[in-house]
Amino acid sequence: MASSLTKDSVLPGTPGSEKTFFGHPRGLATLFMTEMWERFSYYGMRALLPLYLVAPGGLHMSAASATAIYSVYLSLVYLLAMPGGWFADRVLGPRKTVAVAGAVIMLGHLTLALPWAGTFFAGLGLVAIGSGLLKANISTMVGHLYKGTDDPRRDGGFTIFYIGINLGAFAAPLIIGTIGENVNWHIGFALAAVGMGVGLTQFLLGSRHLDPRSDVVPTPLSAEEKRATLRKSALWAAVAVVFYAIVGFSGVYTLNWVLVPITIAGLLIPVMVLVRIKRDKELDRTEQSKMTAYIWFFVAAAVFWMIYDQGGSTVSLFAEKSADNSIFGWEFPVSWYQSVNPIMIMALAPVFAWLWVALARRGKEPSTAVKFGMGLVLVGASFFLFLAPLAIADGGHKAAALWLVGIYFVQTVGELTLSPVGLSVTTKMAPAKYASQMMGVWFLAVTAGDATTGLLSTAGVDLNTKGIVALEACLAAVAGLAVWMYRNKVKTLMGDVR
Q1: Distance CA 143, CA 134 (A)
Q2: Is 180 within 8 Å of 188 (Cβ atoms)?
């Protein structure tokens, strides 16, 4: 490939005359940078979150409570991606929705920076709402940049976009994590707001390079639908306010009154959404078949994310308590472990992008189902590896940092076989009626996985025990094997999508 931004010396408007970003549409650079800064803010806050929750200078909670809050928060972020997609499809369109989302996220991080527990949870809620509005729509706009599902650059474009995510995720723990752990927790959260502010500014300046479809509201609400939606929203908000007021004034309120309903919703809503789409009689036979295949990928992804996202909670809290967080005698903040995965992504993602193209040219590229099976087996292997440092800690010793680095490495390889491919296949298999919403459906797989973790934690299950870790590892390996065994059936259901 040529340089990142090139312009051929031919007349404007002729094929090949437009500016490109690593050979891709110029709008990919705008979305790349926006997502990079948004992920900088998000992953910086996320790296601090479980550590702040257990720290004596933070909220000083138990590890189980911290894991539950962390998992429920992640579940909520991805759960809200679905209404975020709906909001773009019916109200503002993807581009304007992302602009609003950036402002809400920035406000949320500023609220987290205030030194009170009440404002802290309000800030988490705002970041979750903003992230939900942004996530599905920015990925949908990446899909808009390519002309049809057969564009050979499509998978590569999503992989480059994925590098932007991980560039922000790599820098965040090193900067925000260090300031938060070593200087002041709330200054760290404020730095996350600065990052989102930079990302929002860049998006507003570069949005002219996006595809015109990003400004379109595909199925706008009628005036009557708007009134009905507002009435229903107000009713449910009033029910929630009255219910929690009664619980609070009765003196029986605990954090589980919030955590348990969200985790249950995180498990039930994905199932309800998939059933609703699958039973939609407006979908033709081909779309129905693709949705049947998609359910396989959805379930596989839910199992994957259930284990993978514990790298920021279960594994991180283990590191804080039971690991020797030093290399050659040099001690580093616990939050820095969260930079291991993104730096490996940046190193390996181009290799995987090249590998898939090279294998495709030879007719040997693994099918989407095979890639998903590989991802599940690898994330299971990462938790089999986790058993070693757990055994060392049980013996009264501190586990070496390289054990944890090894866990993140195996998870990274698994992520690269599943996550970018999942984003791409979602845009390829989405029924036309559910354009932006289907990306929200993809993120519901993360919701289901994290909700499962949250439910286990609120039920008192200690996720840092060898028995539970081994059980989760076996579950992922068995699920990966099942996907591989039924790969041909899934391939047939996918129709013309490869």
Answers
A1: 15
A2: yes
d(CA 372, CA 121): 35
| 161: CB partners within 8 A, 6+ apart | 28, 31, 32, 35, 139, 142
Tens-digit pLDDT profile for residues 330-354: 899 999 999 999 999 888 888 888 8
CA dihedral 296, 35, 43, 198 (to 10 degrees): -160
Residue 164: pLDDT band (50, 70, 90) is: confident
Question: By C-alpha distance, which of 399, 425, 417 is closest to 320?
Answer: 399
- Are the C-beta atoms of 58 and 189 separated by less than 8 Å? no
Model pTM score: 0.86
Band the pLDDT of 40: cuts 50, 70, 90.
very high
Pairing of β 24-25 and β 20-21: antiparallel
Q: Are 475 and 93 in contact (CB under 8 A)?
A: no
Q: Burial, 248: exposed, middle or buried (Cβ in 10 Å; 0-12, 13-18, 19+)?
A: exposed
Beta bridge partners of 93: none
Question: In the predicted model, is pLDDT for residue 13 greater than 80?
Answer: no
| Among the listed residues 305, 337, 276, the one whose alpha carbon sits nearest the alpha carbon of residue 77 | 305
pLDDT over 60 (residue 70): yes
Residue 14 pLDDT > 60, yes or no? no
- Residue identified by tokens 């089999």 is 384
At 299-308, the pLDDT tens digits run 999 999 999 9
Q: Are 279 and 354 spatial neighbours (Cβ–Cβ below 8 Å)?
A: no
Instruction: Please give the Cα distance from 284 to 403 (Å, whole number).
Output: 50
Q: How many CB atoms lie within 10 A of CB 201?
A: 13
Q: What are phi and psi of 399, to 5 degrees?
A: -75, 140
Tell me the CB-side half-sphere exposure of residue 6, using CA atoms within 13 A: 11
> What are the structural domain ranges in the chain?
21-211+273-493
Give the separation between CA 109 and CA 130, rounded to whole angstroms.
11
Phi, psi torsion values for 97, nearest 5 degrees: -65, -40
- Residue 405, both tokens: 């680095």
Q: Say if residue 284 is exposed, middle or buried (CB neighbours under 10 Å; 0-12, 13-18, 19+).
A: exposed
In the predicted structure, residue 136 carries a pLDDT above the cut 80: no
> Which string of b and e fits 404-419 if b means at least 16 CB within 10 Å?
bebbbbbbbbbbbbbb
Is the per-residue pLDDT at 283 higher than 90?
no
Do the beta carbons of residue 38 and residue 77 sit within 8 Å?
Answer: no
pLDDT at 213 over 50: yes
Pick the CATH number of 21-211+273-493 from 3.40.50.300, 3.40.50.970, 1.20.1250.20, 3.90.180.10: 1.20.1250.20
Q: Which segments of 251-367 does DSSP mark as H helices, in order?
A: 256-278, 285-308, 314-322, 340-361
Backbone CA torsion sign across 88, 91, 95, 99: negative
Beta bridge partners, 324, equal 400
